[in-house]
Amino acid sequence: MLPHRLSYYLKLKGPSFTVDTACSSSGNALHLAFKSIRCGQCETAIVASCHLTIHPGTTVQFFRLGVLSPDGIPKVFDEDANGYVRSEACTCIFLQKSKNAKRIYARIINAKSNCDGFKKGGLTFPSSQIQEELMTEVYKESNINPSKVSYVEAHGTGTQVGDPIEVNAIDRALAKKCGKQLLIGSVKSNIGHPEPASGMCSIIKVLIAMETGFIPPNKNLRRVRKGLEGIEQNRIKIVTEATELLDNDAIVGLNNFGFGGSNCHVILQRFKKQKINGGLPKDDVPRLICVSGRTNEAVLKILDDVSNKSLDEEYVGLLHQ
């Protein structure tokens, strides 16, 4: 009922459904929304994800399975990594065709998903080969040479099995073909693992990097885990301090893997428009600010925000539109 309530409230008549592929739920939801717009099924899409750790039973189950960190610290890619830390998140993004967009944070070049299928290690054991195949396919389909990739936001949960499998897959699919050192990181070192909402949190981290020009650093990395060949041989570098995201049209890859074998990869391109003179208009014509809200407080909040900023004709135009 959750997506249907939103569709009811907002009067939306396109496809409306919940996606559950465990930890890759929001990545797969984004993939499906992206496909729906591309094939003409809808013009716009709302992709939302939420994870709340309300009932302790689920946490107990994962702890007994041995995938949670006993000390509650996410040590992604670290030698002492001992599991992930469950966290909460509510995230939402709006997708539309760039020609209709009033504000562009980034462009989705492609998104693709696959599934591990049968594995000798069991249902919950990730597959490095299938992850590698997914990354190889999505870049080949998009005609993007791995050397063009500026950064990869890894799924990186801080588990002893998952991190080496993913990093080695990134190494084979991208880093070995890159011709330069590939930067990687994982937002889970900063905020923990919000499970089904994790893919969307990774996207928001990438958008922050694209907006500010700096990739947020990983935390809790003391000693890089042994066996990560790409890092040991300097083909891959983990971002441990604020690092500049080069190129105004930088291409960033994003991994989102699901507990059980559902994998997703998204390619984002930076949309960096340079403001001229801070958005000041070239004329001295006064601008009339027209806003609306459901309450007086809502209107006053918007007007206060406008009055506390210097005049920016793009911002005024955005409010009017």
TrEMBL record:
This is Ketosynthase family 3 (KS3) domain-containing protein. Gene3D superfamilies: 3.30.70.3290, 3.40.47.10. It comes from the Eukaryota. Keywords: Transferase. GO terms for biological process: fatty acid biosynthetic process. It comes from Zophobas morio. Pfam families: KAsynt_C_assoc (PF16197), ketoacyl-synt (PF00109), Ketoacyl-synt_C (PF02801). Residues 1-270 form the Ketosynthase family 3 (KS3) domain. Coiled coil: none annotated. InterPro entries: Ketoacyl_synth_AS, Ketoacyl_synth_C, Ketoacyl_synth_N, PKS_assoc, PKS_Beta-ketoAc_synthase_dom, PKS_NRPS_Biosynth_Enz, Thiolase-like. The lineage of its organism: Eukaryota, Metazoa, Ecdysozoa, Arthropoda, Hexapoda. SMART domains: PKS_KS. One of its GO terms (molecular function) is fatty acid synthase activity. Belongs to the thiolase-like superfamily. Beta-ketoacyl-ACP synthases family. SUPFAM superfamilies: Thiolase-like.
